[in-house]
Amino acid sequence: MSVFLALLASLIWGTSDFLGGTVSKKLPAVTTLLWANLLVLPGLMIVTVVIGDLQLTPTTIGWGIVAGISGSLGICALYQGLATGVMGVVAPIASTSVAIPVIVGVVTGEAIGAVRGFGIAMAIGGIILAGGPSVREFRSGGHRPLLFAGAAAVLIGIFLVAMANGSQESALSTLVVMRITDVGLLLPMVFILGLTRIPGRSAVPSIAFIGAADLAANALYGFAVHGSQMAITAVLASLYPVVTLLMARRINQERLNREQMIGVTLAMVGVAAVVLG
User: Fold this and answer.
1) Residue 167: how many CA atoms within 13 Å on its side-chain side?
2) Total number of domains in the chain
3) What does the H/E/C string look like for 54-117?
């Protein structure tokens, strides 16, 4: 079941990231993420209270705050990169975030086995290869989206670890603390940076979908990693760049070169090895 939940999370995350990058071409990424959180936070709190899973403990509060800070800043960096660069390149680079929970999982004693270890290595290598050809843009002035993607990778990796640890006690409670932290961090940023404070009516449905989709993916990842190995679950949940990449190709007609297609193939073979292992 954890495999299915993690893969479903990656599908929803990829769709949300594609739409988030699209909206952020017209609206600041910080504003987009702020309103995405504001629109879903009340519903999340109601659901958590109704089902009796509101557990405000040192574990959920501590890891929820870490997840909120790293997650919100990481997604802002990702959306900014997606809005200013090629989606099919920025998303794969950002997804190297999966290396962080894998390393943490292995260091803390998770036994992944030879087949799954091989699959994890292939998946991470494929993801990097999918974004690697764009590195030469550093020499032509196209490096800013890559910097945003790199920052997103580190921050989202920290988020994956924090969410996994908090979810061992309560995924929903960790999400509640995380979302409250998001709003508390992003709201002053909007005012300090002088950004657009209220999105136009036409953007509200898209932002609401982004918020709901991201929340659903976070919850699915939290449920998937509860009682499971973080290294394996995080790899499966981090396939979202493949979804973003394919949507960018289908909808935006972004061209993918041979190296990127090989990278996507390697990533999928690696995932198969992780699942079958």
Assistant:
1) 24
2) 1
3) CCCCHHHHHHHHHHHHHHHHHHHHHHHHHHHCCHHHHHHHHHHHHHHHHHHHHHCCCCCCHHHH
- For 182-236, the pLDDT digits (tens) are 999 989 988 888 877 888 788 888 888 888 988 899 889 888 888 777 877 887 7
Phi/psi for 265 (5° steps) reads: -60, -45
Neighbours of 59 (CB within 10 A): 17
pLDDT along the chain (277 residues), means of 10: 84 83 79 88 91 89 95 85 74 77 82 77 74 52 75 91 91 93 91 82 86 89 83 78 74 71 77 69
Question: What pLDDT is stored for residue 177 in this prediction?
Answer: 95
Compute and round to an integer the Cα radius of gyration of the chain.
Answer: 18
Q: 257 — alpha (psi -120 to 50), left (phi > 0) or beta?
A: beta
Residue 185 to residue 38: CA distance in whole angstroms: 12
Plot region of 57 (φ>0 → left; ψ -120 to 50 → alpha; else → beta):
beta
Question: What predicted TM-score, i.e. pTM, was given to this entire model?
Answer: 0.81
In terms of residue numbers, what domain contains 15? 2-276
Task: Say how far apart CA 276 and CA 274 lie, in whole Å.
Answer: 6
